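Schema walk-through. Below, the input block comes first and the output block second. Nothing else is stored per chain. Lengths vary across the set, and this one has 228 residues.
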Amino acid sequence: MSRPLTIGEVINHLKGEFPDVTVSKLRFLESEGLVSPRRASSGYREFRPADIDRVRYILRQQRDHFLPLKVIKSKLTAWERGEEPTTPPAAGAPPDTYFATTGVTMSAEELARAAGAPADLVSRLVEHGVLQPKQGEDAEAFDDDDLAVTRAARRLTGHGLEARHLRSFRNAANREADLFTQLTRALLRHGSPASRRQAAEILADSAQAARELQDGMVRAELRRLLGD
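--- output ---
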C-alpha cells in the first residue's frame, strides 16, 4: 500500500472479509476511540497500514469471538504496550485449497495400488480404525484423504510400526476435530453461506496451525533424543 486510503477505500479493501462493514461503522469505532486515523489538510481521514490492521483486528474480534468493544479496547491497549500483537500471523492455505478433493472414490485394492502399499495394510488400517471408509454400492469406498493416510501409514510401517500403533493418531485426530468444532459451533448453527464460509476459514487455519504446533513439538523432542 503506497499511500494512505480514504475511508471509502478502506471499506472496499475490507469488504471481501467483512461484507457488512460500512462507513458509519468505521466512524463509530473512531468515536469510541478504537481507531484514530490522521486527517489530511482537506479534513478527510487517512488510513495507513497500521490503522487498517487495527480495524481488521477489531472486526475479527467482534466476528470470531463476539467480544464487546470495551474488551477489545483493553486488548488494543495491551497491544499498544507491546503485550499483544494485532497483526495476525501468516495463515495457511485457504479453505478452498485445504478442503479440496478430486471426488474420486476407490476400492480397497485401488487404494493399495495408488498408495504403493500391500493390500493387507489397508485391511489392517480399517480393522484398527485408522481408515474409516464409506460404504459404497457394492463395497467399502475410499477417497483422497484415505489415500494420504495410507501413504503416510506405509512409510511408518516401513520403519517397523504396526497398524495398531497408528490408532493413537486417529484418536488424536478425533479429539482435535472435536476441539475445533467448539470454535465454529455457533457459526455452523447459523447456517448462512457467509457463516459457513467463515467457519471453513477458521477450521482450515486452525487445522494447519495445529499441524505446525505438533511438528514443532515433535521435532524438538526428537532433536533432544539425538542430543541436539
